[in-house]
Amino acid sequence: MHAPKSRNITWSHSAIKRSERAERNGHRSAILWFTGLSGSGKSTLSRHVEKALFERGFHTYILDGDNVRFGLCRDLGFSPESRTENIRRIGEVAKLMLDAGVIVLTAFISPYRTDRDVNRELVEDGDFIEIYTKCALKTCEDRDPKGLYKKARAGEIENFTGISAPYEEPLHPEIVIETDAHDVDRCVERIIAELTRLGIVPA
Amino acid sequence: MHAPKSRNITWSHSAIKRSERAERNGHRSAILWFTGLSGSGKSTLSRHVEKALFERGFHTYILDGDNVRFGLCRDLGFSPESRTENIRRIGEVAKLMLDAGVIVLTAFISPYRTDRDVNRELVEDGDFIEIYTKCALKTCEDRDPKGLYKKARAGEIENFTGISAPYEEPLHPEIVIETDAHDVDRCVERIIAELTRLGIVPA
What we know:
The first copy, chain A, is of the alpha/beta class. Chain A has one domain (33-197): P-loop containing nucleotide triphosphate hydrolases (Rossmann fold, 3-Layer(aba) Sandwich). Helices cover 41% and strands 13% of the residues of chain A. In chain A, strands 2-3-1-4-5 form a five-stranded parallel sheet, with helices on both faces.
């Protein structure tokens, strides 16, 4: 088909609505914002939760240090200002993925309450699910999966959350998971149950 | 089911592979990088191409000025350095969406060849499809959908591509669309045909 040549085309716009994507996917999208100390289980839990959701046929994605700190945020360090900018950018990317119909899981310490709340405000009520992986500092330090606490105690890492920088606990997180009290499967089960209760995931 | 309480959990990792997402979705993901002058039809064409892909059941998303410049990149202006950082961040977000299984369309002038090539290098061969919306400056200026050329000519906008800032044409774009020679439907048809030929979209 050859259409007529035209230099005065009506360049109209169209866009796919989020509701159309949700209908297609069979589930609504959401941001599952994991927050907690280093070693509290954010990364592990988010991966297991993603796997469980993916296996149910949902569209999912994880943003974590592995795919963000070396890419989008590779110009940022760990000063308070840089942490804030880091979390801001992640919030904006999560919002785009939310709009794209994805259940996006983020796994960052995100120690400042204000930064998390700013991201919550970016989206509509019910879109931002704050999941606090609550765990005693002592347990996190015993786990020390990356050897970071040891380095922080030795003064080799500055601004380390829990040691030389603050962690501000969530005041009203949608979900609290005590990762030093339950094993991974139980934690995942509880999160999925909460997501169902919140209407993110169909029962 | 109550699992035993444990303080020494094996916090193993798992992740969904891109190939698993592609299998689920029934199509591979890709970055469709539209580039061209203001008014050359990037935004309109990308929206129509997205609609066509979405209607075929594919997972799609558009990154454009509307959802990026006011969010992720709202701290950036239009100096050469800011433009480069703008395009860098968009490239990184597009890469994340690619990894999430999405056919992501980007619609930015992206005037510098180096910036586009940096983003091409971020991903694997065949993932980055550069689509040049080729259109005479005169035609773009006649269209002037946002009245920007008029302001640029009046000196009210600095660093305006094509007027007071350079546009570097792609040397080897995967697709060239002459938007002053064909209407929208014809352009969309050609792009979909090319995407099929390139193996992004099943025939």
